[in-house]
Amino acid sequence: MRSRLIKVEGAGNDFLLGIGTWATRLSEDAELVIQLCDRHRGVGADGILAVFEDRMDAIRLVHSNADGSPSAFCANGTRCAARAAVDLLGLPRHLVVSTGWIEIPAIVRGAEVSLELPPPKTPIDHILETDHGRWRGRQLELGTPHLVLPVDDLDSLSIETVAPALRRHSELGPDGANVHFVKQDSDFLRLRSFERGVEAETLCCGTGVVAAALLALEATAQKSMVVEARSGDRLVVESLGEPPVAPSRLTGPARLVAEIEPLS
User: Fold this and answer.
1) pLDDT given at position 264
2) Is 37 noted as a catalytic residue in this protein?
3) b/e for 150-172, b at 16 or more Cβ within 10 A?
4) Which of 167, 201, 224, 237 is the most exposed place for a label (fewest CB within 10 A)?
C-alpha cells in the first residue's frame, strides 16, 4: 500500500487522512498532528484520520483532534474515512468502520455517505450559569458528549465568546462537551457547533447534528430531520426507533479534496 496523506472534508468539517505509514505516524505522534492541523503554519484541519485496512470489508480508524488529543468518535471523520476506503483502498460500498467507540456500519454512495449509529445514553437536562447568562439545554452522549442549546437568534450569536465557558462547565463532567446552538427554521434545524479539541467553532459536527436532531424529533411525529450546518450543507438524520434514545442513520456529503506531499 502506498503511503498517502489526503485532505478530506465532510460538510465543512475538514481532516488530514493518512494511509500506510502516514496512518501510523498520525496515530502515534501528537506533535505532528498539531503541526499539520495548524491553519497558518501547517496544512490546516479540524483533526486527523489514521486509516488502517482491517479486513476486506472493514477499516480501523484512529481520530485525533487538532490539538493532538485523542477522540473516541467523530461522525464526519468516519464518513470521510469510509469514502476514502472505497475510493482509495477499493473496499466495498457497504463496509464497517471500527472506531475508538464501536464498530460503525457505513454505506458509500458516491459523495453521499451514511452511518448507522447506536442509541445514545439517556439525555441529561441542564440549567447552566456562566458569566454570559443562564442557559437551558440537554446533554446527549454519542461516543462523545454533546450539549444542545436552543437559541432564538443563531446568526448574531457570538459563539467564540459564550461557548468556551459552556464547553468546560463543571456540570458536564471533567472533559466537558461539544456545544451546539440550534434553531428550528420551518422544516429543518439550523446548527452551530463549538468543538472540544479544536476549541473553536467548526463548520459542522456530525455527532452534534445527530444529537440535535434526535432531541428535536422527540417533540414531533416525524422520523427524520434535515439539519443545516454552519457550512450551509444539509445532512439528514433518521431515527430508527423512538427518539431521542434510538438508533439512527446519518447521511451527508464527504469529499476527498487533495493529496498532500510535504516538503519537509
Assistant:
1) 59
2) no
3) bbeebeebebeebbbbbbbbeeb
4) 224
Within its chain, how far is the Cα of 65 from the centroid? 10
Cα dihedral 226→231→246→185 (10° resolution)? -40
pTM greater than the 0.90 cutoff: yes
Of 37, 80, 204, 205, catalytic: 205
Residue ranges and CATH numbers for the domains of the chain are 4-114+254-259 (3.10.310.10), 124-246 (3.10.310.10)
Query: Could you say which DSSP state residue 156 is in?
Result: T
Nearest CA-CA partner of 235 in 195, 198, 205: 205
Cβ neighbours of residue 181 under 8 Å, at least 6 residues apart? Answer: 149, 150, 151, 154, 157, 159, 163, 191, 192, 193
pLDDT, block means (10 residues), the chain with 264 residues: 92 97 96 96 96 94 96 97 97 97 97 97 94 93 95 94 94 93 91 95 97 94 94 97 96 97 74
Question: CA-CA distance, 86 to 149, in Å (whole number)?
Answer: 36
Please check whether residue 196 is in contact with residue 62, taking contact to mean a CB–CB distance below 8 angstroms. no
Asked about 80 being catalytic, the answer comes back as: no
Which of the following is catalytic: 37, 74, 80, 204? 74
